[in-house]
Amino acid sequence: MVDIRRGFSSFSVNDIDAARAFYADTLGLVTTVPSEVGGLELHLPGGGDVFVYPKDNHTPATFTVMHLVVDDIDAAVDELTGKGATFERYEGFSQDEKGIARGLMGSGGDGAWLQDPAGNIIGLMSGEG
To answer: Is 3.40.309.10 the CATH classification of the domain at 9-125?
Structure first.
């Protein structure tokens, strides 16, 4: 059996400075810039890290690359909308005027999706996750 010490996910962006501003300043995540690799580490509340790396020929993911669990999705959507975020709308399920899909996520929680500056899809969800 493989002896795995820890895991993390990663995804690419086309502008690491814009990504840092979005993840740190807009979303409020703790970020660090490991000088040896030129990327960005996102430190998630509750543990875990995500590595964001620059890629010249970046293509935005067409799926949700990361979900962030929030206590109050309405307050989170309102705050991020106030910071200029636009929430995505998807065919196939109902979303309210804020772009929130009610009762869709795990344990009946609510979900909403926005794009980072590189076009990657980030999900917000309430509920147990």
So the answer is: no
